[in-house]
Amino acid sequence: MSLHVLDPGALALVEDLGRPGWAALGVSPSGALDRAALRLGNRLLGNDEGCAGLELLLGGFAARFESEAWFALTGADGPADLDGHPVDMHRAVHAPSGAVLRIGRPAHGMRSYLTVRGGLAVPAVLGSRSRDVLSGLGPEPLRAGEDVPLGDPAGPVPPVDFVPVSAPTLGSVELRAHHGPRADWFTDAAVEAFHDTEWTVSAESNRVGVRLDPPAAGRHAAPLLERRVSAELPSEPMVAGSVQVSPDGRPTVLLADHPVTGGYPVIAVVADASLDLLAQARPGQPVTFRRA
Amino acid sequence: MSVRILPSGDHALLAELDRLDEVLALYRALDAERPAGVVDLVPAARTIGVVVDPGVLPLSVAQAWVERTRPVVATPRDEHAVEILVHYDGEDLAAVAGLLGIGVREVVDLHTSSSWRVAFGGFAPGFGYLVTDHDRLRVPRRATPRTAVPAGSVGLAGEFSGVYPRSSPGGWQLIGTTDAVLWDAAADPPALLRPGALVRFREAT
């Protein structure tokens, strides 16, 4: 039982719910960026929520089922077809042996998730099958011609007709953010500006972090996020959601593959429940922070 | 010793201390009696990250646990030390001796006779920032970092010594090399060096 990759698209990674618990050894939790989407995809198939699926960046993916299988598509919303027949998102779909699944470029969001009944049975590293792009742990990004083994189903596919899902937005993404551990290293004006500014997702973003640009970058003489304390910060532990501010005053929101420690002061920490939304924000999309 | 609690989102907090040896002592105590619901306990230079599963251990309870825990100072005498065999053939060995105003032999003797302790990790899986109880090996980082430092390189930087678990860019002063395997994801435990562990370097002959 396997999935034969014909075209991985921009980036196809195996992800599950990650490997928390190893941070003291320098290993970040990693795992699917849009955890709700992966969980939903697994639930639709009767899988354990933490089964490994594929995280597909901006579509362009094609694969052949080498045996009959059930699969589901969740996350970024876009066109998909199975042997030319359109496939609905957010439902369990049966694929006959030899059927080819093609996933187009999503209309909304960044990352779609392909889950398969039984999960992807690639070898686990430190208890997880997730690819961590920073540490290089977990399976390599998928390549054309590769066969991805499928696991044994845990139970029957549950009878579900319709699941209400709010599709990722193309408009402004509002994230809830807590006061960060080093908010007091910034001026009051900087903390205000952080919450008042409509930031833009930079193209220099990945699974390690989302870099944010200020409006009309370059027009401001002084950085928006000015520091009160200019001392060098001894490296301290980071979490997914930590908003680090680099010396040029630009914020980066760390995501699942973040370094476990960092030396830039953290002005705010995005609420855990908001991180799935951020995972779907595209370069150029506006982002604002509301006080949690 | 006073510990300050800093917020770090809805499932983590930072405990901040004044000195690295205080971090080590509190980390040792916390690690020895982790309650259920502590997902990660991450020491760093002046802080310890406490990551919880808030459904099992609310942050307020975790905070009370950190505040009431008494630090435990380690006693190297009766402790098992990780031994690392080193060939002292690093490219920067002579430069380090020059910076310290001592001979190459003395650098090697100091490095092998000191008791080192893993203070924290964080640069790459399996990397440990090692500290000792004197500053006679304190040297600045290289002015220009190397684009690739081979795995097994033993280096010095500031108050730290360390071993590169794998090839990576780096600015540490390289004094030697080791064949020891610092990181093996398939092994249990995967890292040779864990925070709190005692380390002794021995010269390979």
- Poorly predicted regions of chain B are none
Cα shape of chain A: elongated
- The total strand number of chain B stands at 13
Give a quick account of the main beta sheet of chain A: strands, pairing sense, barrel closure. 7 strands, mixed, barrel
What is the strand content of chain B? 25-35%
What is the CATH class designation of the largest domain in chain B? Mainly Beta
> If you average the pLDDT of chain A, what whole number results?
94
Sequence of strands across the biggest β-sheet of chain B: 1-2-4-3
Radius of gyration of chain A: 20 Å
Coarse structural class of chain B:
alpha+beta
Which residues of chain A form runs of ≥5 with pLDDT under 50? none
- String of helices and strands of chain A: EEHEEEEEEEEEEHEEEEEEEHE
Amount of beta strand of chain A = 25-35%
Structure description:
The complex is a heterodimer of chains A (292) and B (205). Chain A has 2 domains: 2-149, no CATH class; 173-291, Cyclophilin (Beta Barrel). Chain A is 8% helix and 32% strand. Chain A has helices at 35-44, 188-196, 275-279; strands at residues 2-7, 11-15, 53-57, 61-65, 69-77, 80-82, 85-86, 93-95, 100-103, 108-116, 147-149, 173-179, 199-201, 209-213, 236-237, 242-245, 251-254, 261-262, 266-270, 286-291. In chain A, the strands form 4 sheets. Chain A has a 7-stranded mixed beta barrel. In chain A, β16 (242-245) and β17 (251-254) form a beta hairpin. The longest helix of chain A is centred in the N-terminal third of the chain and has 10 residues, at 35-44. Chain B is of the alpha+beta class and 205 residues long. The termini of chain B are far apart. Classes of the chains: A mainly beta (292), B alpha+beta (205). The A-B interface holds A 20-27, 29, 125-126, 135, 137, 178-182, 234-239, 241-242, 259-261, 266, 269-273, 292 and B 6-12, 14, 39-49, 51, 120-127, 185-186, 189-191, 194-195.
